[in-house]
Design brief:
74% helix; mainly alpha; 5 helices; 140 residues; 0% strand
């Protein structure tokens, strides 16, 4: 079984990679976590909570990495690089559905257009490949 340290480091690095890609090819709009902060914590528009949104996103991604090493090995192998990446992609697809359906639509009341939803999928797949690769390397 993969270590919690591997999940923590993998989740952190995968979130950094995902965020870097979001910043490079995204549309510059606030992340959904900034919308979350605006709706439930602050009283300003989401643009005012970019930093809080990024910190929250980093925390979510790191915790999701820990959940990955605790839960995914119960149903999928993560014992090799290839198996880890495949498991990471499967996990990313689940995270994408949770983000797009539960968080964005139900919690935040957002209706992302197809282009944004496609970007969200690519960003989550990036997260899954990096996380699964780090965990699958079995070095932590």
């Amino acid at each position: 079984m993969a270590s919690i340290l591997a999940g923590l480091v993998g989740g952190l690095l995968a979130t950094v990679a995902m965020t870097a890609l979001m910043m490079a090819i995204g549309d510059g709009s606030p992340p959904p976590t900034a919308n979350f902060w605006s709706k439930f914590v602050g009283d300003e528009p989401p643009d005012e909570y970019m930093m809080q949104g990024m910190v929250l996103h980093l925390l979510y991604g790191t915790v999701a990495g820990i959940v990955f090493v605790l839960v995914v090995p119960l149903v999928l192998s993560v014992s090799t690089l290839t198996a880890g990446i495949i498991a990471g992609i499967a996990y990313a697809l689940v995270l994408f559905v949770v983000a797009a359906v539960f968080w964005m639509r139900l919690v935040l009341g957002m209706e992302p257009e197809m282009r944004k939803a496609g970007g969200l999928l690519v960003f989550h797949l990036t997260y899954g490949v990096v996380l699964g690769g780090i965990v699958g390397l079995n070095i932590l």
